[in-house]
């Protein structure tokens, strides 16, 4: 049996989805090819993907790239990865932005369901934590939710305001904290 020819480019390496269907993220955690170089691609804080300085306007293409995105915690870098290539890219903050929130249930039994700018959906739970970092001298809150495999979404300001409206107080380790419940887990929003 004859093997298919090796891929000629990054896009040739990506398994194809059926036409009209949303592609599931690739199993990038299984791939660790050598570094191929740096790609002139970056993701802005607002979730816009740029290639060679121009925004990528086709959402399906951005979703394709997002499906092969990997964060290497040891290197502190983001890469586009296939079984045969690994290209470094720049990310200003988080690769995704959580743009919508739906709430199911109430109180400790509620579930907070986030949708990203690329139509990924995630429910905040123990595997997909929600947290807030305080940044800069003004201690401006920067809220995040884990989407998948070390890839996070910055929570859009409007969505964060919705979370604040849902916030309750709870004592944790002898300290009064302000936060929200999702999937039976309490997530502090006060950034302490």
TrEMBL record:
Domain DUF1285, residue spans: 26-94, 95-189
Disordered, as annotated region: 1-29
This protein's name: DUF1285 domain-containing protein
């Amino acid at each position: 049996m004859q093997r298919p020819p090796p891929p000629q480019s990054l896009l040739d390496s990506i398994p194809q989805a059926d036409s009209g269907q949303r592609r599931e993220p690739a199993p990038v955690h299984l791939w660790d090819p050598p570094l191929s170089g740096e790609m002139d691609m970056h993701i802005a804080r607002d979730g816009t993907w740029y290639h060679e300085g121009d925004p990528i306007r086709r959402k399906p293409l951005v979703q394709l790239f997002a499906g092969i995105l990997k964060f290497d915690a040891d290197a502190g870098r983001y890469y586009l990865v296939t079984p045969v290539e690994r290209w470094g890219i720049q990310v200003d903050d988080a690769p995704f932005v959580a743009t919508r929130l739906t709430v199911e249930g109430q109180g400790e039994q509620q579930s907070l369901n986030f949708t990203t700018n690329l139509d990924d959906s995630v429910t905040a739970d123990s595997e997909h934590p929600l947290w807030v970092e305080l940044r800069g001298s003004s201690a401006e809150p920067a809220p995040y939710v884990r989407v998948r495999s070390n890839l996070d979404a910055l929570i859009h300001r409007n969505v964060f305001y919705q979370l604040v409206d849902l916030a309750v107080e709870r004592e944790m380790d002898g300290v009064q904290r302000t936060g929200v419940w999702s999937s039976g887990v309490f997530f502090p929003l006060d950034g302490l």
